[in-house]
Amino acid sequence: MSREALTSRIEGRTEENVPALRRAFQILDLVAGSDGSLNAAEITRGLSLPKSTVHGLLKVMVELNVLVRSSNGSFKLGPHLMRWAHGFLAEVDVVSAFQEFFAVDTALSQYTITLAVLDGDHVVYIGCRNSNQPLGLTFRIGMRLPAPFTATGKMLLSQLPDADLVEMLGGRFPAPMTAQSVSSLDELRKELQIIRQRGYSIDDGEVRAGIICIGSVIRDHSGKVIAGIATSLLRSDSTQEIIEELGARMISIAGRLSQRMGITAGPDSPVA
User: Fold this and answer.
1) In the CATH scheme, what is the code of domain 92-260?
2) Which residues form the HTH iclR-type domain (predicted)?
3) Cβ proximity of 36 and 75 under 8 Å
4) What is the pTM of this model?
5) Is 164 exposed, middle or buried, given 0-12, 13-18 or 19+ CB atoms closer than 10 A?
6) How far is CA 242 from CA 213, 236, 267, in A?
7) Closest of 74, 70, 19 to residue 49, by C-alpha
């Protein structure tokens, strides 16, 4: 057999295998979206595929531990998939995602962007891209600030159950940093309710007078909140229209970063 003929034959086989691969993924998606109660006949009907095709694919997928067949004949996802999931999650890092995103996206280059995580009743900054516009406050990695006063902190606190808020802040509320700082847990609760409805948080001079910060949250593949992200600018450079526009942008950016962390929500979907 000539080299050309052999190449053509291999390519032909590859093309024949592509539909099988697509159908296997359709089966996985169908099973993943069910409660693990689908049998072969139900999968066949659900995907409108030939019975012989589905049975052949199911046999191979069970052999490879991609699917597991229960004693009642139904199928559920198998343990082999966890190897792929762990491999993906091991490569994902929110700081790297933050850095890579803003290395390419320069739409907010005139604003300082920060990334923070909750540590008790404080936030710790783990990522920062300071702008060249002077703010009077330089964010740096490792900086700690009381969570109730910061945009990232407010956003992260808004995702906690009330019982956790009481345990964290009920006995000792942080001393205010400025005259604008929220002064009590009851006052903070009211603000957090507004944040949940609005989808983004605002620190209006609570950390440093004259600086306004607007934040949202980033989620991982499971939907769990893992970090807060915020943009900062001078209060004198902001208007209500600019604040609302930046709030929408932070929701969108947080959604895109959440996608990089494995969440399946749309890039412009609110993540709060």
Assistant:
1) 3.30.450.40
2) 18-79
3) yes
4) 0.66
5) exposed
6) 12, 11, 21
7) 19
Question: How many whole angstroms separate alpha carbon 215 and alpha carbon 114?
Answer: 9
Ordered by start, the domain boundaries in the chain are 3-87, 92-260
Tens digit of each residue's pLDDT, the chain (272 residues): 444 544 444 444 444 456 888 899 899 988 887 766 789 999 999 899 999 999 999 999 999 989 999 888 999 888 888 777 655 555 558 988 999 999 888 888 889 999 999 988 999 999 998 887 777 777 888 888 999 999 999 999 999 999 999 999 988 899 999 999 999 999 999 999 999 999 999 999 999 999 999 999 999 888 899 999 999 999 998 999 999 999 999 999 999 999 988 887 544 444 43
Please say whether the beta carbons of 255 and 265 come within 8 A: yes
Residue 162 CA: distances (Å) to CA of 52, 117, 166, 186, 199: 54, 19, 6, 11, 18
| Angle CA 118–124–129, to nearest 5 | 120
Query: CB-side exposure of 137: number of CA atoms within 13 Å?
Result: 23
Give the dihedral of Cα atoms 260, 265, 266, 272; nearest 10 deg: -90
List CB contacts of 134: < 8 A, sequence separation 6 or more. none
Q: Is the backbone of residue 136 left (phi > 0), alpha (psi -120 to 50) or beta? A: left
Of the candidates 12, 20, 19, which has an alpha carbon nearest to the alpha carbon of residue 56? 20
* Helices 3-32 and 51-63, packing angle to 10 deg: 90
Helices (H), ranges, the chain: 3-32, 40-47, 51-63, 80-91, 94-104, 151-157, 162-169, 185-198, 240-260
Residue entry with tokens 């198998």: 78
